Every structure is written in C-alpha cells, then in structure tokens.
Amino acid sequence: MGNSLRVEGLCAGYGAVQVLDRISLSVNDGETVTLLGTNGNGKSTLMKCIMGIVPPSAGRISAIVDGVEHDLAGRAPEQIVDLGIVLVPEGGGFSRGSRWRKISCSGLTAGARARRSQGTSSSASRLFRALPSGAGSSRAA
Questions:
Q1: Pick from 135, 74, 75, 67: which is nearest to 100 by CA?
Q2: Is 58 in contact with 8 (CB distance < 8 Å)?
Q3: Tell me, what CATH number does 24's domain have?
Q4: Cα separation of 126 and 130, whole Å?
Q5: CB-count burial class (<10 Å; 0-12, 13-18, 19+) for 136
Q6: Are 21 and 11 in contact (CB under 8 A)?
Q7: How many CA atoms lie within 13 A of 120 on its CB side?
Q8: Residue 115 domain-assigned (yes or no)
Q9: Given strand 17-27, what is the order of strands in its sheet?
Q10: Residue 62 and residue 70: Cα distance in Å, rounded?
Q11: What is the average pLDDT across 107-126?
C-alpha cells in the first residue's frame, strides 16, 4: 500500500492578500520533493495549508495513507497529524536539535502517542537510521 500527497488547484492567502494561486503538485510513495524559492513565494503558506493551519480558498489537498484516501482540506491540524502527516520546522530551535528530537517532536498529539505505543516509534527508529548521517545534525551558527 503506497502513500502519496496530492495538491490540486490550491489557492490560499491571508485576508485580501492571495499568496497561492492554483498550485498543483504530487508526491508519490518514495519520492522526495523540495520547495525552493525566495522569501514571500508561498512555501510556508503551502505547508501550512497541507497541515490545516491555513484554510485554502479553493482547490483540493488529499493524501493516501496506508492505501486509504483522505481529504485534508477543512481538517484540524491534530487530525492531520493523527494520519501521520507532520511538519518539522527547521527554525525555532529545531535546527540545533538531533535528528531523533526532530522526528520525535513531530507528533505530539494524543493520537500520535497512542500510535507510538502501538509500534509507530519503531517506524520513527527506522526513519532515523535511514537518514544520512549529516541530515538534521547541528549547524554552526
């Protein structure tokens, strides 16, 4: 069963300021995607929409998790995290933490704790071992 994320025709913004205008992308199982751009291009807004922090004004966000499709638009961030979808920010002190701290801090809801007790922590351990040795390590200030 594969996992994937699909964003189709996404529009979002803050008040009268439209930041995202018909953004579409897909991430399939096993793919790594990087968002690049200068400040103000909508990278954070896109991630906040996916995580349910900023509601889209149009478009669709869906994820297939363990073979089941879920519509993410309109869901609370806690519900999205309970599906196993997390955002681990690089700033705010996380950049100086270990890889394990970043992974373990990425799912702190009750649902995530329940999954951890049912074996999700072993998945995080496998992810930790799979990361390149430099990924997530401390950076020089």
A1: 135
A2: no
A3: 3.40.50.300
A4: 6
A5: buried
A6: yes
A7: 17
A8: yes
A9: 17-27, 4-14, 58-65, 68-71
A10: 6
A11: 49
Residue in the structure block whose two tokens are 């992974």: 103
What Å distances lie between residue 46 and 3, 31, 32, 117, CA to CA? 19, 18, 16, 31
Residue 2: what pLDDT?
Answer: 80
Question: Do 50 and 105 sit in the same domain of this protein?
Answer: no
Strand partners, 70: 63
The span from the CA of 101 to the CA of 128, in Å, is: 10
Q: Which pLDDT band holds residue 108 (cuts at 50, 70, 90)?
A: very low
Note down the domain range covering 139.
Answer: 88-141
Bridge partners (DSSP) of residue 4 are 64
Please check whether residue 25 is in contact with residue 32, taking contact to mean a CB–CB distance below 8 angstroms: no
Say if CB 109 and CB 78 are below 8 A apart.
yes
Answer whether residue 110 shows pLDDT above 80: no
- The type of residue at 68 is V
Model confidence over 65-98: pLDDT tens digits? 989 999 999 899 999 999 989 887 766 555 555 5
Q: Does the pLDDT value for residue 54 go beyond 50?
A: yes
